[in-house]
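As a representative case, we now present a protein record of this kind.
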Amino acid sequence: METSLHRQLKLVYAEEAADAQIEQTLGRYRIDVVRNGELIEIQHGSLAAIRTKISNLLKKHRVRVVKPIVVRKRLIKQARRGGKVISRRLSPKKGTILDLFHELIYFTRVFPHVNLLLEAPLVEVEEWRFPGHGRRRRHRQGDQQVEDQKLVQIERAYNFRTAADLLQLMPPDLPSEFDTAQLAAGLDIDRSVAQRIAYCLRHMGAFDEVGKQGNARLYRASA
């Protein structure tokens, strides 16, 4: 089921051009927004789910994939689905632009492409919940189901056309050759996340693997 967040983002991108059209059919695909000859696909879910679709569209069209990153979330708890609001609180979890790499790992065969723009808006949302277990096999007291997500604001948006554009997210003081431990320290993230970033950037051509130091692989940013 389409969320309010998805509908709101379609309107945001359609409002930027007078001739924009929402939910257009192109061959066997439905396109979220068509604007100035560009196809815009808004994907809050996994990029893996649209990988084949985007690959096919890129053969003949300019495509913008919009991957919103939730950086702040306010949790709205209801007594029941569609019922009275009983609490509101900010989630302690905060997202960052680096969360993009959790999805890019499934998109390395699509991005970069001469016809593709990858846009990552950082969004604040409200998440409306109600008591329930959903499809969970194990039920726990206090389980909550998500009824909807609603856009509060877009804080900023990042645009990426080339693999080199992703290097703007890397720490500026990395040594010329580095391993994922140094990358993790420079970005203040877990090493497992740094390994995912290195995997993505190596497969996209932004990092070169240049050797090993002990068991650690060494990388260099591509020229």
About this structure: The chain has a mean pLDDT of 93.
